[in-house]
Write a structure and sequence with these properties.
The protein is mostly helical. The protein contains 4 helices and no strands.
């Protein structure tokens, strides 16, 4: 694949986010990260790593807000707590990887 294909794949994920297709965006960014044709020094890989980390943090925050704003049964509360924990843990791991790989990134100041 050409570098343009990975740029297009990244932008497609951005479009999916704009269309509220969060799962589709997540899958597209993860496909970039798992591609055997792209490595961490590539811009698209770096941007996809940041995007997935941010998305997981955002999704953890969304689940947290659902916990605070709704009357839920105990099973739903437990499920949401598990989601908050899982997504927060993954976001932290991904952001730590991002910082370790790209300590001079401008995105770290955002």
């Amino acid at each position: 694949s050409s570098p343009a294909a990975f740029t297009a794949a990244y932008q497609l994920a951005v479009c999916r986010m704009e269309q509220q297709d969060v799962d589709g965006a997540d899958a597209a960014w993860r496909a970039i990260l798992s591609s055997s044709e792209l490595t961490p020094p590539a811009k698209e890989w770096r941007e996809a790593l940041f995007a997935v980390a941010k998305l997981q943090g955002d999704r953890a925050g969304y689940a947290w807000r659902k916990l605070e704003s709704q009357t839920l049964n105990p099973a739903a509360i437990e499920t949401l707590w598990e989601e908050v924990e899982r997504r927060s843990r993954e976001a932290t791991t991904l952001f730590e990887e991002y910082v370790a790989r790209y300590p001079q990134s401008e995105q770290l100041t955002e």
